[in-house]
Design a protein that fits this description.
binds iron/sulfur cluster; 11% strand; 43% helix; Rossmann fold; globular; Substrate Binding Domain Of Dnak, Chain:A, Domain 2; 4Fe4S_Fe_S_CS; 797 residues; 30 helices
Length: 797
């Protein structure tokens, strides 16, 4: 019997002993969802559903583990010594334990973004409702590439984001479960789980960013987003200063609203550190950015802020102690960092303001972001009236006294992560030469470790900053406000040249400020690629530091290079969570340009990106677990990353063995053959020790098997030129990437053909300057590579 039920009340009379089972109710929205694209093979993938793809990657890019520590004390059967092939009491070996720790680090990072996303979505739904539309404008039709690719829906309203987060949270918990003692015994299974976490992280970041972009009217993919003042010296210290620190815009936005609603925006300075600063300037371009995490101690110790408001992530765990020493009240606003402060969310603001201004309370916890604005502004104004003007950091006399107390014992140098020669700077300063302090300041991450070991209790950080104050305040510049997603039209314009290789690559500087040397190295690295017409797309702390330095004409990189997603342009997508727009751009190339199906089709899209899209991440100063998770998410998507030397402490890299021919195979859909290819990209995660090495690695990692001969020629030209320029020699592997004489850089063709003949034994027809024998494979313009059987079978029919 067919029974058609329509909307309304229906009555089934006269029916006895009939049980009616109602399956899942499909609503109109779900019906429509079916229409936009057929569902791919892996909607909401479970933790093992993409294991086959991970295994394929990990066969080629075998994890290499750094010997950071070789014991484990995660459970009470330990501590267990795991060196020299020993196993823990639970049976785990060193490799698997390292992979477990990597998974844990990624879980911490992804959970931070996910909790942030949940907080934002929850807040925005309360304010604007479930049905508030996700509309990124006509130029951005593929609004959420990560969500479409992984979860398999096209989110249309804020409420849709909740179910995406439900899925992410569930899988994060499932993977956390796997890190309990006595679970996996193969390190590759943990690595696969770390990759799953990284992928989920990009989904969560996308949720967070598109929610705030649509609800708070941030720039919508605007290449001409406003230029923002950035740097220690941009603060108007004559005004009361509110310093906001962290990653969650909500309290800072409320402060900004309060200032505007009360006509105080020109009376009070709101400035930020880290991603809260970036997002505040997306909301209000008049807000200012002091800098990255490495500016936190600088900013607080200067004594300039009148009140400090913290939210979550990458905030020093001594913020309250440091502020209290200087009488700066702290307003903590996040459940993630309550700082031991009393919860005064529901108290009368007059009482709270009074307590903070009088010093009766060093700080308060206000959990409702909507209540922070009034309190922060009123406290800043009152404190400023009270405190008057003091010299930043210390007086000249105090500086001299502190310097004179130094004995040159070098304890500070050994404690410093960069072994900065504070002793020498102190000694030179005693003779009136402060220039060494300026050099120290350039590389100092203001971690304060030196102070902890100084037997004379010298306020070393304050001394460094005071002694180099002139240059510290001169480091100011402009950063283009985070523009959010890349437009579909931009992807259409650059898709073909990226895949052909004629745009030599996309470089994505996306990391923290734990740099190995001077902070301006990141500018030097990136400008090299901008001049060479690579696309540069940045986010987070790197995006800030790229704007911090001016050239001799007084221009920062954002003023010199346009903000489009195009060759020779510098795009800032926004804060950490906007990293999802960078992975999203790679996904969109596969979908919009190559028309590969996107919906729930992760492995195919990642395989496409790995083989065709010459995109590489750069995390030059990585330190956080979020950076670990973001990079691992990029790796699963087929995007390699170059990381600075401190990243060795993440414990593992993914480096291919270029000499193992059997690792470098693909299926060619055109010829229907399985064949060997040149080893590109030859790593998924690689540590560079110096900026010179990083530049050369970045250029090489843009090479892809599907490059056309024109593209390969351009990429090889950059690779060889950069190696000669920065390392003083030809790279030792350039010949591996040559398929035909047309791949060779034009200016060096004869020289390189000669080397191929003489040093590598290739056969050359000199009358035609043609390669007759030698390459790993011949060039084929229709070459269509994949490393996935299912993709091969799908397209090679
Ligand atoms: S988890 Fe295993 S290796 Fe670690 S302490 Fe416990 S028993 Fe030892
Ligand atoms: S504060 Fe600066 S000088 Fe001191 S240990 Fe940290 S990086 Fe080194
Ligand atoms: S530890 Fe203190 S006393 Fe020793 S060299 Fe450093 S600043 Fe001077």
């Amino acid at each position: 019997m067919d029974l058609e039920l329509r909307e309304g009340i229906f009555v089934l009379d006269e029916m006895r002993n009939v049980s009616i089972k109602i399956g899942r109710i499909i609503d109109e929205e779900e019906e429509k969802e079916k229409e936009w694209e057929p569902l791919g093979p892996t909607p909401k993938p479970h933790i093992l559903d993409l294991r086959h793809w991970d295994r394929r990657l990990l066969e080629r890019y075998e994890p290499i583990y750094a010997p950071m520590q070789d014991f484990c004390n995660l459970c009470t059967m330990g501590p267990c010594e795991l060196s020299q092939n020993k196993e823990g009491a639970c049976g785990i070996d060193l490799k698997t334990q390292k992979a477990r720790l990597v998974t844990l680090a990624c879980l911490i990072g992804a959970s931070s973004h996910t909790a942030h996303a949940r907080h934002l979505v929850h807040y925005l739904i309360e304010k604007f409702g479930h049905d508030y539309p996700i509309d990124l404008g006509g130029d951005i039709n593929v609004e959420a590439p990560n969500i479409r690719l992984v979860f398999g829906i096209k989110p249309k309203k804020l409420g849709d984001l909740e179910k995406v987060l439900d899925y992410v949270e569930q899988d994060l918990v499932r993977i956390l479960h796997t890190t309990h003692t006595g679970q996996e015994e193969d390190h590759l299974d943990y690595e696969s789980k770390a990759m799953h976490v990284g992928m989920l992280d990009h989904v969560a970041m996308e949720v967070a960013d598109i929610a705030q972009v649509v609800a708070f009217n941030y720039p919508l993919g605007d290449p001409n987003a406003p230029l923002i003042d950035i740097g220690f010296g941009v603060l108007e210290t004559e005004k009361p200063v509110i310093l906001v620190i962290g990653h969650n815009i909500l309290p800072a936005r409320n402060i900004d609203d309060y200032l505007r609603e009360h006509g105080l925006e020109d009376e009070v300075e709101i400035a930020g550190l880290c991603c809260t600063a970036i997002d505040t300037t997306r909301y209000d371009p008049k807000a200012k950015i002091v800098g990255t995490l490495s500016y936190e101690l600088r900013a607080i110790r200067s004594g300039i802020p009148d009140v400090v408001v913290t939210d979550e992530q990458c905030i020093r765990a001594d913020t309250l102690r440091e502020c209290s020493k200087l009488g700066i009240p702290v307003i903590a606003s996040s459940e993630a960092a309550a700082r031991g402060l009393p919860d005064r969310t529901h108290e009368n603001p007059d009482v709270i303001v009074n307590d903070l201004v009088s010093g009766r309370a060093k700080g308060v916890l206000i959990r409702d972001p909507d209540k922070v604005g009034e309190i922060a502004v009123r406290v800043a104004m009152e404190i400023r009236k009270k405190k008057g003007k003091k010299p930043p950091f210390m007086s000249e006399e105090e500086l001299k006294t502190e310097i004179d107390r130094c004995t040159g014992c070098m304890n500070c140098v050994f404690a410093c992560p960069h072994n900065l020669r504070i002793d020498k700077a102190m000694s030179a300063a005693k003779d009136g030469d402060f220039s060494v302090f300026k050099t120290v300041e350039d590389s100092c991450i203001a971690c304060g470790r030196c102070e902890q070991v100084c037997p004379r209790d010298i306020r070393i950080v304050d001394v460094i900053m005071k002694a180099s104050y002139d240059s510290l305040v001169r480091k100011t510049g402009k950063m283009r406000a985070g523009r959010g997603p890349i437009q579909d039209t931009e992807i259409r314009n650059v898709g073909q040249p990226i895949v052909m290789g004629t745009i030599p690559g996309i470089i994505a500087p996306i990391g923290c400020p734990n740099y190995p040397k001077a902070r301006n190295e990141i500018v030097e690295i990136i400008e090299e690629f901008l001049k060479r017409k690579f696309i540069v797309v940045s986010s987070g702390c790197h995006a800030m530091d790229l704007g911090m330095y001016r050239d001799e004409d007084g221009k920062s990189l954002y003023e010199k290079y346009p903000g489009a997603f195009d060759a020779g342009c510098l795009t800032n997508v926004g804060s950490c969570v906007a990293n999802s727009h960078i992975s999203g751009a790679a996904i969109k190339v596969a979908n919009i340009f190559a028309m590969r199906p996107l919906r729930a089709n992760y492995a195919e899209i990642a395989d496409y990106i790995l083989n065709r899209v010459g995109a590489v991440g750069l995390a030059w100063g990585p330190y956080s677990q979020k950076a670990a998770s973001i990079a691992t998410g990029f790796n699963r998507l087929g995007v390699p990353a170059v990381v600075g030397p401190h990243a060795a402490k993440y414990r593992r890299a993914f480096i291919g063995k270029v000499w193992k021919k059997e690792d470098w195979w693909v299926y060619d859909i055109k010829s229907k053959q399985r064949m060997y290819v040149e080893p590109c990209p030859d790593a998924l995660l690689v540590v560079a020790e110096t900026k010179e090495e990083a530049i050369v690695q970045l250029a090489r990692l843009c090479i892809r098997p599907a490059d056309t001969y024109m593209g390969r020629q351009i990429k090889l030209t950059h690779y060889i030129e950069l190696s000669k320029k920065y390392l003083g020699c030809l790279p030792d592997d350039w010949h591996l990437y040559v398929r035909t004489e047309a791949d060779l850089p034009l200016k060096m063709k004869d020289e390189l053909l000669k080397i191929l003949e003489e040093e590598h034994g290739w056969k050359i027809d000199w009358s035609k300057k043609k390669i007759l024998e030698g390459p790993i494979r011949p060039y084929d313009s229709g070459f269509n590579p994949t490393i996935l059987e299912e993709v091969f079978e799908k397209y090679a029919r």
